[in-house]
């Protein structure tokens, strides 16, 4: 009767991380002195379930650590202690520490306990406990700590197993507290015919010699209190310290002496080993997603409708073809199309999560950074319920962290300067998310000093990004901060300003088919606007024809499509044609040439030009014809083949044929085209990091 | 489809546990063998979507029930002149582990031939092909009756990132 607990690990980790998130967000909101009881309770409950879970699964490093945390919280909850800022900071640190521990356990690594032990020491100092940072340390060593021997009678009720409890784990946990001797009583085990395999007939008596308090033992049995008879009594120790406890505990007549009780049974070690080996069995690192039941329900409804439509169509199919059946068939097909679209939208919704998952990490970040910078900051979160694709969400959070740090570090002024400028000393950073068309827009606004265009300009000239005589509008100047190797920070701090920042932010966002822009007004503040497609799985595409091949150009990157006015085309260099379009010069890329296809129309005036933009860089793609616009499902070409330059993926068209999706920035690279004026711009960057 | 039925029939007849089974196919009058466990299905030739700037032996990609599968002309891969594709041209879809990634690819061959059970000992070592690019693609040689069958090392044949491909 042993359950492979490892199958529940993933759930435990997920719940624990959620618990930690809850603790963190409550802690950040707490104003010491004005906290209400419910907040403390929420934090306490989260800590308590993490402790319980980790104890059950044998993650003692976590449960030991959470225990001290919980003790402190318990005292605060009972009003024995006042919550101070010091405690809040300490608790926040332990949330981080627990997260690290759990991550390590999840990755099946041995967690680094140094930080945990240090924090635990601090907690214990507060609680006035002796430091027991090494709980399972050398038990042979004669310590000065008083040891007691407890007699523990543990008589589970028959239904214990059904409640999901495993005595083996409790016993091995008990064994970790100190020296243990175990007696098992099996006289209750019935005849084999009456034996129910899912009932517990065994009971145990333990003699435990430990320096731990009785509460530590009680805690182990905390989860089975109602499912077993448990009596714990002190029956003597090496350094008799029972005086204090004897009042509440009647001394029991025990034959065993303390010395006998010290003998560690070999069997227990084996038990411990068993637990150890279970711990190391591979827990599949599945990436799961939590879906609201309403979303699942609506999916089931949709599928139901789909089935009905299908039944209707197959019924029509069996009839003889007449005028009326054709009409019915057309209606049925229209309904089918409707059902499919609904189903598609709803299936996509499953991958959608509210952006509050990303936003929720910012209160903490802002709090920490503003403390470090001595700035007063209020963080406003708007549109937290805006949903976006899980994959996009995971990839957008690092760039966002960078932008928020930037706003705090460079954007907002220190309080004195804000007062001098006639502003509220408390600066505001606003995160706003909303849907616009098929995109999600995330704005990061601050009411700080704005971008210093003069300094950016100067810096850009120093770095050779622009020429000293170039006249640039302030928007164009602001764009410069996204160039590689650009930083205006006067001194490099550990928060931002290593010069590997904004270009990486932009690149990461572009990798998601998104864009980032900045607008700024001196003295009023700056706003970064991130635009992202709602999902990575589907894309709005323009089908184009090149020779006999059909390619797809992402609609989001198309600026316009036009017929070429041959008089405005001039030849630059050996083989590059440039079209003058209004006040811009657009290089013409011949798709058939780049992709090496024969049989395309080569005369410029007989073809069409699709002007696309990528990295703020406009080029015209020469195509034979424009076909339909449609949503396409992105499929990987790499999965069975390899990366193809200039192609970002493939899709399957309505007729079942494969069509390839053009990757604009890859295409520009492939064409060997360089942005005029700054040669190094399109050269690939290596060794990037998100600061 | 009838090809596939025949194949299943033969498979059942020749099921023997201690031997490896090989699906053989014809190409330019030579018989080649593939480990049958790698074979997913056998299809007729259909039009493919060309992949830009691919090596000449990569004919393009097809949609295999929602997956994008590249199609490789084995004749061209081995440097044998290609023949025109007709309704009888066969594509063997294989699933191979290449550099720790499971990839599904289609192989264009002249015709599917037979299924043989071949014990590991019977497969002769490959003669020293050191100088030849194609040598590494051969896993072993075996005599079946009067004929010689070349057993292929698919993982090498289909590794498109290998040096030879990069050079060509």
Your description of this structure?
Chain A: This is Chemotaxis protein CheA. The complex is a heterodimer of chains A (691) and B (168). Helices cover 40% and strands 22% of the residues of chain A. In chain A, β12 and β13 (549-554) form a beta hairpin. In chain A, α1 runs antiparallel to α2 (37-56), α1 (6-29) runs antiparallel to α4 and α11 (293-318) packs antiparallel against α12 (323-350). Chain A is globular and about 105 Å long. In chain B, strands 8-1-2-10-9 form a five-stranded mixed sheet, with helices on one face. A five-stranded mixed sheet of chain B has the order 3-6-7-5-4. Chain B has a single domain, classed as OB fold (Dihydrolipoamide Acetyltransferase, E2P) (Beta Barrel). Chain B is globular, with a radius of gyration of 16 Å. Mean pLDDT of chain B is 81; it is low at 163-168. The chains are: A alpha+beta (691), B mainly beta (168). Chain A binds chain B through residues 549-550, 594-597, 635-637, 639-642, 644-647, 650, 652, 656-660, and chain B through 47-54, 58, 60-63, 66-70, 103-105, 160-161.
């Amino acid at each position: 009767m042993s359950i492979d607990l490892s199958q529940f690990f993933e759930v435990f980790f997920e719940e624990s991380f959620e618990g930690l998130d809850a603790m963190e967000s409550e802690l950040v909101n707490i104003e010491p002195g004005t906290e209400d009881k419910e907040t403390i309770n929420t934090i306490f409950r989260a800590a308590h379930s993490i402790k319980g879970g980790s104890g059950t699964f044998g993650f003692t490093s976590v449960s030991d650590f959470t225990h001290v945390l919980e003790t402190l919280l318990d005292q605060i909850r009972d009003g024995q202690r006042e919550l101070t800022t010091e405690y809040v900071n300490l608790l926040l640190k332990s949330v981080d520490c627990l997260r690290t521990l759990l991550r390590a356990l999840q990755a099946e690594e041995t967690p680094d306990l140094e930080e945990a032990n240090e924090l635990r020491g601090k907690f214990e100092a507060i609680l006035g406990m002796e430091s027991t940072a090494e709980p399972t340390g050398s038990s042979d060593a004669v310590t000065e700590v008083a040891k007691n021997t407890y007699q523990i009678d543990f008589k589970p009720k028959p239904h214990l197993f059904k409640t999901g409890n495993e005595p083996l784990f409790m016993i091995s946990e008990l064994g970790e507290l100190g020296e243990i001797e175990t007696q098992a009583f099996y006289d209750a085990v019935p005849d084999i015919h009456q034996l129910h395999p899912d009932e517990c007939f065994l009971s145990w008596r333990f003699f435990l010699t430990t320096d731990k308090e009785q509460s530590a033992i009680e805690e182990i049995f905390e989860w089975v209190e109602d499912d077993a008879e448990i009596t714990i009594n002190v029956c003597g120790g090496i350094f008799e310290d029972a005086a204090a406890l004897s009042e509440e505990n009647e001394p029991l007549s025990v034959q065993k002496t303390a010395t006998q009780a010290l003998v560690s049974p070999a069997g227990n070690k084996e038990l411990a080993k068993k637990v150890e080996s279970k711990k190391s069995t591979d827990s599949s690192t599945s990436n799961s997603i939590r879906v609201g039941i309403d979303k699942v329900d609506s999916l089931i409804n949709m599928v139901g409708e789909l089935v009905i439509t299908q039944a209707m169509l197959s019924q029509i199919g069996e009839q003889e073809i007449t005028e009326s059946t054709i009409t019915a068939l057309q209606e049925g097909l229209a309904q089918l199309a409707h059902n499919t679209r609904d189903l598609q939208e709803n299936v996509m919704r499953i991958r959608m999560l509210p952006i509050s998952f990303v936003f929720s990490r910012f209160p903490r970040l802002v709090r920490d950074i503003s403390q470090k910078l001595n700035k007063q900051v209020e963080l406003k979160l708007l549109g937290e319920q805006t949903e976006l694709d899980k994959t996009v969400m995971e990839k957008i959070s690092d760039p966002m962290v960078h932008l928020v740090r930037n706003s705090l570090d460079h954007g907002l002024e220190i309080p004195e300067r804000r007062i001098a400028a006639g502003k509220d000393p408390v600066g505001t950073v606003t995160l706003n998310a909303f849907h616009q068309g098929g995109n999600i827009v995330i704005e990061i606004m601050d009411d700080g000093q704005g971008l210093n265009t003069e300094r950016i300009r100067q810096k850009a000239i120093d770095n050779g990004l622009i020429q000293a005589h170039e006249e640039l509008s302030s928007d164009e100047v602001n764009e410069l901060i996204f160039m590689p190797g650009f930083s205006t920070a006067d001194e490099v701090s550990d928060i931002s300003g290593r010069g590997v920042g904004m270009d990486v932010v932009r690149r990461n966002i572009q990798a998601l088919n998104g864009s980032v822009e900045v607008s700024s007004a001196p003295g009023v503040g700056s706003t970064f606007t991130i635009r992202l497609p709602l999902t990575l799985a589907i894309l709005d595409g323009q089908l184009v024809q090149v020779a006999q091949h059909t390619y797809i150009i992402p609609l989001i990157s198309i600026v316009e499509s036009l017929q070429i006015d041959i008089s405005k085309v001039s030849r630059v260099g050996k083989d590059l044609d440039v079209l003058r379009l209004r006040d811009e010069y657009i290089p013409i890329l011949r798709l058939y040439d780049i992709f090496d296809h024969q049989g395309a129309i080569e005369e410029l005036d007989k073809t069409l030009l699709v002007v696309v933009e990528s990295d703020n860089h406009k080029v015209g793609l020469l195509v034979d014809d424009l076909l339909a616009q449609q949503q396409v499902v992105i499929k990987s070409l790499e999965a069975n083949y390899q990366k193809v330059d200039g192609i970002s993926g493939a899709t399957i068209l309505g007729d079942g044929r494969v069509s390839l999706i053009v990757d604009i920035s890859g295409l520009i690279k492939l064409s060997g085209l360089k942005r005029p004026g700054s040669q190094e711009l399109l050269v690939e960057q290596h060794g990037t990091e998100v600061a | 489809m009838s090809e596939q039925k025949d194949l299943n029939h033969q498979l059942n007849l020749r099921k023997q546990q201690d031997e490896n089974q090989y699906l053989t196919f014809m190409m330019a009058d030579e018989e080649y063998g593939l480990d049958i466990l790698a074979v997913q299905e056998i299809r007729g030739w259909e039009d493919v979507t060309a992949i830009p700037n691919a090596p000449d032996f990569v004919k393009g990609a097809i949609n295999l029930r929602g997956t994008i599968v590249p199609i490789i002309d084995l004749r061209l891969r081995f440097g044998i002149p290609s023949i025109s594709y007709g309704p009888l041209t066969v594509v063997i879809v294989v699933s191979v582990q290449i550099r720790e990634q499971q990839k599904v690819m289609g192989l264009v061959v002249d015709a599917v031939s037979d299924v043989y059970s071949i014990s590991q000992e019977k497969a002769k070592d490959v003669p020293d092909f050191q100088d030849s690019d194609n040598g590494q693609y051969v896993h072993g040689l075996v005599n079946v009756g009067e004929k010689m069958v070349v057993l292929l090392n698919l993982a090498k044949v289909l590794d498109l990132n290998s040096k030879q491909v990069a050079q060509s």
